[in-house]
């Protein structure tokens, strides 16, 4: 790790990936220690990343607690929490869905995909689900009259005892009935750093083209809770990838998608292990697996 000084403070350059965890000042974490907040940019492992240290006294604290080994904690968390049932919504190829499915099968996610919802019964995601024996629901209704109404969708999802709904490239609007029936329980992934390049009209390659045209030097996936405003629910997790000077939209999309697969697995794993907590102002935080007193 190299240290640099500048008018902005002390910087250190570190090499390799790093997932940051932060301590927050809650009533139960009373400490008057000086604060050290570390911000990390998460890049592919061969790219040097920069760690900036800021001295802040009020909002973040160092917490000195014993770090429990990941496996010990994982086992103890999982022994206490029920395995969750997930509904995944897709409209396309479903690479995120496939990656999440693999993570439920190999045990990374403490849950199962109980049902797949799609508006495109022949899409790659729906074919994959049928192949794996996962029931497929059509929503909304299509021209020939097949497909469920919003009310029937809520009932169908409830009949699978679904705990959480995971949107993975589903292009239709989520009905208000479903959002109200599953408060704080629906996640979406978007391929830009929200709130930039989100909302109506920002989907697929349009997002990446707009990012490149804007001159933004960084992009990356955002995972957020879904509420009644399009792409505006509270942000739960983000990951940064560089936008390179000669990037095409396709190249940037591939770089972002690679991170999407990793990030969605980690976040859905946290959701299923009940490691999401809600800050007083309504912002959701992920408790670190290695130490539940630290947050991502
Ligand atoms: C992803 O880029 C995701 O961010 C967006 O839709 C795309 C779905 O891709 N919401 P896939 O079908 O999972 O490959």
Automatic annotation (TrEMBL):
User: What is any one GO biological process for this UniProt entry?
Assistant: 'de novo' IMP biosynthetic process
Output one GO MF annotation. Answer: phosphoribosylglycinamide formyltransferase activity
Q: Where in the cell is it found?
A: Plastid, Chloroplast
- The main place the protein resides is plastid
Instruction: Please indicate which superkingdom the organism of origin belongs to.
Output: Eukaryota
**A Gene Ontology CC term for this entry?**
chloroplast
> Which family would the database say this protein is a member of?
Belongs to the GART family.
Return the SUPFAM superfamilies for the record.
Answer: Formyltransferase
Which EC numbers does the record give? 2.1.2.2
Q: In which pathway does it act?
A: Purine metabolism; IMP biosynthesis via de novo pathway; N(2)-formyl-N(1)-(5-phospho-D-ribosyl)glycinamide from N(1)-(5-phospho-D-ribosyl)glycinamide (10-formyl THF route): step 1/1
Task: Give the reaction(s) catalysed.
Answer: N(1)-(5-phospho-beta-D-ribosyl)glycinamide + (6R)-10-formyltetrahydrofolate = N(2)-formyl-N(1)-(5-phospho-beta-D-ribosyl)glycinamide + (6S)-5,6,7,8-tetrahydrofolate + H(+)
Under the heading Pfam families, the entry gives: Formyl_trans_N
* Record's keyword annotation contains ATP-binding: no
Keyword annotations for this protein, in alphabetical order, are:
Chloroplast, Plastid, Purine biosynthesis, Transferase, Transit peptide
- The protein in question is named Phosphoribosylglycinamide formyltransferase, chloroplastic
């Amino acid at each position: 790790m190299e240290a640099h000084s500048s008018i902005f403070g002390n910087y250190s350059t570190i090499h390799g990936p790093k997932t940051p965890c932060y301590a927050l000042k809650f009533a139960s974490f009373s400490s008057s220690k000086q604060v050290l907040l570390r911000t990390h940019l998460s890049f592919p492992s061969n790219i040097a990343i920069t760690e900036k240290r800021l001295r802040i006294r009020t909002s973040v604290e160092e917490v000195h607690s014993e770090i429990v080994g990941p496996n010990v904690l994982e086992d103890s968390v999982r022994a206490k929490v029920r395995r969750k049932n997930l509904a995944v919504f897709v409209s396309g190829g479903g690479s995120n869905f496939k990656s999440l499915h693999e993570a439920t099968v190999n045990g990374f996610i403490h849950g199962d995909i109980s049902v797949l919802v799609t508006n495109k019964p022949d899409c790659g995601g729906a074919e994959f689900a049928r192949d794996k024996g996962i029931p497929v629901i059509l929503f909304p209704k299509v021209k020939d009259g097949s497909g469920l109404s919003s009310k029937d969708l809520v009932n169908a999802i409830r009949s699978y005892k679904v705990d959480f709904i995971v949107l993975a490239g589903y292009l239709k609007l989520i009905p208000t009935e479903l959002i109200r029936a599953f408060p704080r329980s629906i996640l979406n992934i978007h391929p830009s750093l929200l709130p930039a390049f989100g909302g109506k009209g920002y989907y697929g390659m349009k997002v990446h083209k707009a990012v490149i045209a804007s001159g933004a030097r960084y992009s990356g996936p955002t995972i957020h809770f879904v509420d009644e405003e399009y792409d505006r629910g509270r942000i739960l997790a983000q990951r940064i990838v560089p936008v390179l000077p000669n990037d095409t939209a396709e190249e940037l999309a591939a770089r972002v998608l690679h991170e999407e697969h990793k990030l969605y697995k980690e976040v859905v794993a946290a959701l299923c292990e009940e490691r999401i907590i809600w800050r007083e102002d309504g912002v959701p935080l992920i408790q670190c697996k290695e130490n539940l007193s630290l947050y991502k």
